[in-house]
Write a structure and sequence with these properties.
218 residues, mainly alpha, 12 helices, elongated
Length: 218
């Protein structure tokens, strides 16, 4: 196993895409499940920590296949949540460089988002909401309204459960959610959620409900 990890490290340092492809296809088949998880985790941690490997590697079909393999064979957690960092990087690349919105949405949908503040995958409610709004926005770019509706519904559930929306309109300085919502970023995310929700309703020909949402935004 050590030989495999050393080979992966060397291939990342030299951006040897062909070597990485061989490791995660031909050699991959000879490994046990535990070894596959360990090697997948090692690849992601090492690639993320490299100052030169990404984003150039995203343009390689070979590396994208390697990434697909590793993201699907990970242990329950990866050190420093490196798998989440990788998904964020892929999302940015797919949106900004390739304008491949549906793939970007699927990648971001795979983020691990925990409510337990002690977890390395912890995300506060407004950040989880932002993720689902981004996913919905991407699906709408490609007119995938069913998928967009599912994502925006998840964002709405988070907002309702966390009390963010009611906190924004509260004048009570003692409100327990005050510190969470009184900032520009939170307001921006909520406005994007409302806009995306209205667009989903519009796309589904629910014009009256959409009009109410648009009026609310105005």
């Amino acid at each position: 196993m050590e030989a495999h990890t050393q080979s992966v490290t060397a291939a990342i340092q030299s951006s040897d895409y062909a070597r990485l492809s061989i490791i995660f296809t031909l050699q991959w088949q000879s490994l046990g499940q535990g070894e596959q998880r360990a090697l997948a985790s090692h690849f992601i941690k090492t690639a993320i920590s490299s100052p030169t490997f990404f984003p150039a590697a995203f343009a390689s079909p070979q590396i994208m296949e390697v990434i697909h393999t590793t993201l699907n064979h990970l242990p329950p957690s990866v050190e420093n949540a490196a798998d989440n960092i990788l998904r964020q990087k892929i999302f940015d690349y797919k949106v900004n460089e390739e304008e491949d919105y549906s793939t970007a949405a699927r990648i971001l949908s795979g983020l691990k988002m925990e409510e337990n503040e002690e977890s390395m995958y912890y995300m506060p409610p407004i950040e989880r909401c932002d993720v689902f709004v981004k996913v919905a926005e991407c699906y709408l770019e490609e007119d995938l309204t069913v998928e967009a509706e599912g994502a925006v519904s998840k964002a709405g559930t988070i907002i309702e459960a966390s009390g963010i929306m009611s906190s924004m309109t509260s004048n009570n300085s003692d409100n327990e959610n005050e510190e969470v919502v009184k900032d520009e970023r939170t307001i921006t995310i909520i406005l994007r959620y409302k806009s995306t929700h209205a667009r989903v309703l519009d796309a589904n020909r629910k014009f009256l409900q959409a009009a109410v949402k648009y009026h609310d935004l105005s």
